[in-house]
Amino acid sequence: MRTVRGVLAGTWFLLVAGSPTASAQQPADPLAAVLAQFPDNGLPALIADFERACQSPPAPHDPLVFQRLAQLGPAAHEALLGCALSSYGEDRGLASAFGDFDARAAWALPLLLEESNLTKPLTQELLVQLGPAAMPALPTLQALAQGQHKYLKTAIERIAKASDQPVPLAVARPQPRVDAQQIPALLERLRNGPEEQRWPALQALLLAGDAAAASAAEVILTLELDVRTLQTSQDLAAALRCTYGARCLQGRQPQEGLLESELPAELLRLSLAGRLDRLQSVQSWFQSTNAAVRRDLVLGLLLATNPQMHFGMLPTQDDEATVRQRIDLLQRVRRTRGARTVEELLPALVAAPSTAEREELLKDLRSLDLRDAPAALWPIVFECATKLPRAQQTASDLLYGIARQQAGLPDAVLRLLPQLGSGQDHAQLRRELLNATNAEAIVAYVRTVSERPDDLAVWLTILNATNRERSSQIVALLGSSLAAEIALLPATGKLAWLELDRSADVDDAIWQELLTDPDPASRLKAIRAARWRDRTHPLPLDLLLICLRDEDLSVATITSYMVGADQRDPQRVTRAIAARFDTASDDLRFHLLLALRQQREQLAAVRSLIDRAFANASWRLQLPAALLLLDVEPEHGPAFATLVRLQAHSDPEARQQALRQVANTPALAARCVDRAIECLKDPNDQVQTAAIRLLGAVPAAKERTLPLLRQLRERRPNDLAGQVAAHAIETLERPPTTSPDKR
Questions:
Q1: d(CA 32, CA 29)
Q2: What is d(CA 394, CA 364) in angstroms, rounded to the nearest whole number?
Q3: Are 451 and 481 in contact (CB under 8 A)?
Q4: How confident is the model at residue 451 (pLDDT cuts 50, 70, 90)?
Q5: What is the distance between the alpha carbons of residues 252 and 514, in angstroms, rounded to a whole number?
């Protein structure tokens, strides 16, 4: 079968051979001799315009482009067919671009006769133009017309009528030749020009086979990275893609029916045609053990007319060197395309009069790599994400996209991060953005803002809201470099720093400032931060006693346990707790009495206070007072009876607290097993959970309790009670450990 390449080369051969000076001008350079076989006829730019005209929805086109393609005649036919027949667009006068498409183009008949192509008006028109060469198609068309394609009857009549015309005279022409040894030199000429030799070099490489065409495609795509050769790259890529659009249509087989050994060659042709959208299993082929398959799929993503379609399927790395090389090229091309697309859209984004229009423009960027996008894009994205609810989701998707590339944030994004605030609305997005940037870059930026206390405070708050692993990295890298700046920060900044760096050495003056702040929320954050570091960096006792008198219940409650555990001056601590007891609410008194349990040696001094609490009608005072009495007198009958009674109290909170507090004292827990077993049937889930924990703290009773706990775990495996039961079972089944001899 003669090909369009033969027709094209023959035309050029006759032009050269017909010149009286042709033999005198024959180039001596072997590469020049190869290039001389192929014309620089401007086809790539024309095909690129034709490809845009074939897109759906219809794209405007210049009629002059179609006229110039028609003038090229057979030299353009293969690429035109590959583009038009592979397109999903409608026929919009495309046949006029084919010019002299007649019986000499009989090589194209198999492409036109594919059933998916016969539905196109363009195909029917071209079959008519083939005239006598279309005669072999009539039986196939007539068979189809008997079925669901009845509309083909009109086309059959036209083709049959055109078949009566005489067959044009075909002139045998020599086939251009390309020596495989010239391929490296052709690739270099394609890469570095001169400009007028790039298309001839590509034509030669397309003739040299699929492997040479794949190497040419890589070179073409590298040209896209330089704005000076961008248009050349896009035009040459269109010519290559459309040429292979025809080649991969000829004899195309369904991928599902291919043998594993046949797949690489077929996929390479589809990739060179940019037709991976025809595959239903692109993702699965990326998992292939055949490196050639993976490598060529990446090439197909680069050449696709809509490359964003499958970019999400691309692996970010590969062990095979040639695949890694293609992935790297794809990532660089994506970044370049993303940056240029943003440059084109920015004026419209800035001028967009409504949120809806701005959102539609941002949607066009969602599948792009925006790491190299102009910095002017990001203030618009952050404004949409934080202030324009209608565009918020689209803008957030853009930020999530750049975070999930795990390749570091652009500086412009890092600077704007405080606009997301420190609340819960954007907590996940903040975490992902911070995790996408290496800790060194974050630390470097934090140091640049450290001279501005308000900005530093904002950043410390943001960092404190990230995950603990990342915040620990940042703290370690910052070291003591911000020590001088911390003292200058507002209260919010100091608190953020205390929460971020739990081992920092903080002056007592800063603690006093924070723990006496007029804002109770600030005091609460400060006392929590102090409790975290209480064992390694205890607060001065004077300051703790000030906090014990705090009017805020939460602050005073946390402080009560810190004071109760403080052994620096037990007598003073006990007196302070007793003094605070007189002015406290019942809720705080409950915690103050529990705090006293840690000052056991001083309980005699406050025995009257304990007795008064025990005699009170409120269970909140009776419960901790009974525990204190049993601490002093383990056989105190009324106190133990009170604990058992409270485990059956009408208030579920009283039952829960009674079980929970008893579970913390093993000797008491062992005496309350019976009541805890009854509480496994309590209607309140929290009471049941407290009872399970108590039973898990009594190994001596495990023969009785393990069967009950196992039943509960099997009945309720997914709720809290079942999970706590599983933990209790694990604890009870653990082999006992022998305590070391402490003599």
A1: 5
A2: 10
A3: no
A4: confident
A5: 75
Q: How far apart are CA 352 and CA 354, in angstroms?
A: 6
Element of type H or E holding 56? none
Helix (H) or strand (E) run with residue 457 in it:
helix 453-464
Answer whether 371's CB lies under 8 Å from 402's CB: yes
Residue whose pair of structure tokens reads 């003599």 in the numeric block: 743
735: DSSP letter? P
Residue with tokens 């009974």: 626
Dump pLDDT digits (tens) for 592-651: 999 999 998 999 999 999 999 999 999 999 999 999 999 999 999 999 999 999 999 999
Number of other residues whose CB lies within 10 A of the CB of residue 147: 8
**453 upstream amide cis, omega within 30 of 0:** no
Residue 574 CA to residue 603 CA, distance in Å, equals 8
SS3 of 199, please? helix
Cβ contact 359:394 at 8 Å: yes
Q: Please, what sign has the CA dihedral across residues 575, 580, 582, 587?
A: negative
Q: How far apart are CA 514 and CA 104, in angstroms?
A: 91
Q: What is the pTM of this model?
A: 0.66
For residues 111 and 243, the answer to whether their CB atoms sit within 8 Å is no
Give the total residue count for the chain.
743
Contact 214/183 with Cβ under 8 angstroms? no
d(CA 203, CA 660): 83
Hey, what are 280's tokens? Answer: 């239903």
Q: What is the pLDDT of residue 121?
A: 83
Query: What six digits make up the tokens of 320?
Result: 């095979």
- Per the listing, tokens 């949607």 go with 363
What pLDDT does 19 receive? 39
Residue that has been written with the tokens 């996929």 in this structure: 267
> How large is the C-alpha radius of gyration of the chain?
40
Helices 553-565 and 541-548 cross at an angle (nearest 10°) of 140
Buried (b) or exposed (e) across 611-627, using 16+ Cβ within 10 A?
eebbeeeebbbbbbbbb
Residues 175, 38 contacting (CB under 8 angstroms): no
Q: Does residue 740 register a pLDDT over 50?
A: no
Reading the block at residue 459, the tokens are 């950043």
Q: Are 563 and 550 in contact (CB under 8 A)?
A: no
CA dist 352 and 355 (Å) reads 8
Here the tokens at position 235 are 């035009």
Distances (CA, A) of 158 to 77, 81, 143, 680: 22, 21, 16, 89
The CA angle 237-240-242, to the nearest 5 degrees, is: 105
Residue 324, CA distances (Å) to 235, 270, 309, 434, 523 in order: 26, 20, 21, 27, 54
* CA-based torsion, 286, 290, 295, 300: positive or negative: negative
- For residues 314 and 298, the answer to whether their CB atoms sit within 8 Å is yes
Q: What DSSP string describes 634-687?
A: TT-HHHHHHHHHHTT-SSHHHHHHHHHHHHTSHHHHHHTHHHHHHHTT-SSHHH
Residue 355: both structure tokens together: 């949120």
Question: What type of residue sits at position 685?
Answer: D
Helix, strand, coil share (%) of the chain residues, nearest 5 = 70, 0, 30
Residue with tokens 């805020």: 552
Beta carbons within 8 Å of 740's beta carbon, 6+ residues apart: none
Q: What distance in Å separates the CA atoms of residue 25 and residue 39, rounded to the nearest whole number?
A: 16
Any alpha helices (H) in 248-315, and if so which ranges?
A: 263-272, 282-285, 291-303, 308-311
Token digits for 248? 């991969």
Query: Is 82:247 a contact under the CB 8 Å cutoff?
Result: yes
Would you state the pLDDT for residue 13? 32
Residue 640 has a pLDDT of 95
CB atoms within 10 A of CB 468: 10
